[in-house]
Amino acid sequence: MRMPVRFAFGLLNAIRNKADLTGNKRGCDRGVCGACTMIIDGKTAYACSTLAIEVVGKQIRTVDGLADGAKLHPVQQAFCDRDALMCGFCTPGFVMATVALIEKHPKPTAEQVKKGLDGNICRCGTFVRIMEAAMAASGQLATSTRGVNRG
Ligand code: FES
Ligand code: FES
After folding, report:
1. Is there an atom of ligand 1 within 6 Å of 46 CB?
2. Which residue blocks in the chain are alpha helix, DSSP H?
3. 36 C-alpha to center of ligand 1: Å?
4. DSSP code for 44
5. pLDDT tens per residue, range 68-122
6. Residue 126: what are its φ and ψ, rounded to 5°?
7. Does 119 contact ligand 1 (Cβ within 6 A)?
8. Given the CA of residue 124, which atom of ligand 2 is nearest to it?
9. Contact 92, 65 (CB under 8 A)
10. Is the pTM of the predicted complex or chain greater than 0.85?
């Protein structure tokens, strides 16, 4: 059976179905939602819209490789601490976009956070908390929300 080229050689399919690294999700599958965001040679990319052959020899980072054993990456920890997710489907993509943002701008401004994450969509509407998580991960907001009245 012939398979469509995108199915056979898409980076997201290769990572999820061949390498069995299923952290990054498939949302729209057409370069719109950002759920599949990975970091390729330091830059964010939509894995659903990237051919695997395009990235041969490049460094590919997925959400699966962020934690150090049981210790979460600071960005992952900030998303947990700031309750920056509901269903969580968009979260791996947002986490990767935030990691790339903070590696480029260790103390980003609110505008830089908005710009850095503007390729990602959260259908549950957790944008405010995602912004807070990005600021907390960069040390510009308290990590924990304990004792904060969130209304
Ligand atoms: S699944 Fe890749 S951008 Fe939506
Ligand atoms: S937490 Fe549900 S889509 Fe973002």
Report:
1. yes
2. 5-9, 11-13, 74-81, 91-104, 110-116, 127-137
3. 5
4. E
5. 999 999 999 999 999 999 999 999 999 999 999 999 999 999 999 999 999 999 9
6. -90, 25
7. no
8. 2
9. no
10. yes
Q: What are 4-37's pLDDT values in tens digits? A: 444 458 999 999 999 999 999 999 999 999 999 9
Residue pair 37/47 in contact (Cβ under 8 Å)? The answer is yes
Report residue 136 as tokens: 């907390």
Which residue is associated with the tokens 């719109």? Answer: 32
Dig out the tokens for 7 from the structure.
């199915």
Q: In angstroms, what is the span from residue 93 Cα to ligand 1's centroid?
A: 9
Return the pLDDT at 6. Answer: 47
> Which atom of ligand 2 approaches the CA of 122 most closely?
4
Question: Probe ligand 1: pick from 16, 24, 30, 89, max atoms within 8 Å of CB?
Answer: 30
- The Å distance, Cα 34 to ligand 2 centre, comes to 11
User: Helix, strand, or coil here: 37?
Assistant: strand
Secondary structure of the chain: what % helix, strand, coil (to 5)?
Answer: 40, 10, 50
Residues 6+ apart with CB under 8 A from 122: 86, 90, 94, 130
Residues with Cβ < 8 Å from 93, sequence gap 6 or more?
Answer: 24, 25, 27, 33, 34, 35, 36, 37, 120
